[in-house]
Amino acid sequence: MIDKASGQKKIEELQEQYSKTKYNKATNKYLGILRAKIAKVKHEMESRGRRKGAGYSVRKSGNATVVLVGFPNAGKSSLLKALTGAQSRVADYAFTTLDVIPGMLEYNGAKIQILDLPGLIQGMHVGRGGSMKVVSVIRIADMILFVIDINQHQQIFQLVEELNLLGIRVNRKKPEIRIEVRQAGGVHAEPNGHRVPDPRVVQSILNEFKIFNAVVSFYADASDQDFIDFAAGNCVYLRGAVALNKIDTVDQRKAAAVEKEIRAGTGMEVIQISAKMAENIDMLKKAVFDGLGLIRIFLKPKDGQPDFINPLVLEKGSNVADVVRKINTKLAGSIRYAMVSGPSAKFPNQRVGEDHRVMDGDIVTVIFS
Ligand SMILES: Nc1nc2c(ncn2[C@@H]2O[C@H](COP(=O)(O)OP(=O)(O)O)[C@@H](O)[C@H]2O)c(=O)[nH]1
Ligand SMILES: [Mg+2]
Predict the structure, then answer these.
(1) Whose alpha carbon is nearest atom 12 of ligand 1?
(2) Which of 3, 32, 190, 200 sits between 20 and 30 A of 130, alpha carbons compared?
């Protein structure tokens, strides 16, 4: 195990080598190994931190947690206020001692916790200025909402890159890989028909992690970086969206061009807003709700009316058993069947079992035994 100072020094050295190496087909493998080395040192530093009980926790509350990430002055505090009414300080973050300012957005019956992280700055991947604390908050979030000043929109690419270096993957699928460590036989890769790294790359990356005998099975396409991430085991995969702020300061043509560039460059949903003028805030709320993959279920008593005022909020892909668990975990064992009307039903009051997947807007009656 390495201490923080020497770990950081090592990371900086590796990062320097990395940035000095030009990317091409010949150096690709070397770059991959450097990334693996960096990931490994970080991993060691992190596990050390955890053991010592260091760390920083924000209590998650509500149905989901969204963090606002952006450069100073992009409009995070203003947006937090526009979304939640929370009184975080505008434009004087330098004087506040708070690391995280929470607010609660209620939308479609969902309670969405929004966290403003005032301390997030460039260079955070080397752990400068207490920013690792902030990073630990991002890692527990369900979604990142980037707040970008339209007049400095290149910042989005810097932020995504910084997060990448910190093991936070935005809008990327988690690699589907299994590594079975063996006693002997060397490293063996089973691509199962997917586009996967070269076997020699797989082997040298695993060797970095001191694994010399293993069967690696791929269940989806994976890049070299995906494989390193998986081997290091310290990446998180978060949904992202971009709030393109201060559109009141530019003309529509410029706004449209910037939106297009960010969509193309990041694959993220972009919502043009003005936090100051409260423009398009409802549209942004909807994008956050949809981006989180939340759905609403309206419960209906057997002989009564559906409750359209207080929906249950669940994640996409939930089934009837999940609905019941949400009402009361103790009830989950005693479901007889359910009656479903709405998007997931073939016809009104379709009788379904506990494995039936519900969809946004379903009306559900559960019959217990
Ligand atoms: N014109 C304009 N100014 C904004 C907008 N949103 C925020 N600002 C201003 O930008 C400055 C920084 O805003 P603030 O919310 O403190 O940014 P933060 O540092 O990211 O929290 C303040 O002077 C805000 O009034 C907007 O939509 N339009
Ligand atoms: Mg602020």
Answers:
(1) 73
(2) 32
